[in-house]
Amino acid sequence: MLTRPAVYVATHVELGYAATINRVQDMIVDTSHTFVDPQSTSREQLYVVATRGRESNRMCAVVEETLEVDALARVYDPDQIGRMEAVVRDVLDAGMAGRIVNDEAWTHLASRLAAHEAWGAAVRAQVSAADRAEDTGSDSTVEPFAKIYHHRIGATVATTGESAPPT
Length: 167
What we know:
Strand content: 5-15%
Number of helices: 8
Distance between the termini: 40 Å
Shape: elongated
Helix content: 40-55%
């Protein structure tokens, strides 16, 4: 058990209560934090909980599986893969571009390129720098290309002292 002085509690502690969606229908609070079960929450109920907070409304959805970061990025940026494919097809020759975008590792490479794009990197230049003439030579053993380019391009690095890409 934790004990705090009464003066501290009176100054710095505010009681919070849990309530059902039906109970909060007429309430307005500073901030609202809600757990939403997609299986049992109707859109009318969702509207109610999404409009109770004056300053903010935070909702967490109950899901059976956590989305991968790549999948989450595609939800927020549905054009990401198409945009990265356009870059690859613009920079590389048709044969190499086709081999890359048809590779099973393509989505991972596209996500890496999009992460670089979010940091403000010149994605076209990175794809161009990863391209090597010896990859397509008759004695080349490079396969699969998407994995090789993924490795060559590398992970994003903060260059401005930031710890995350801009929102």
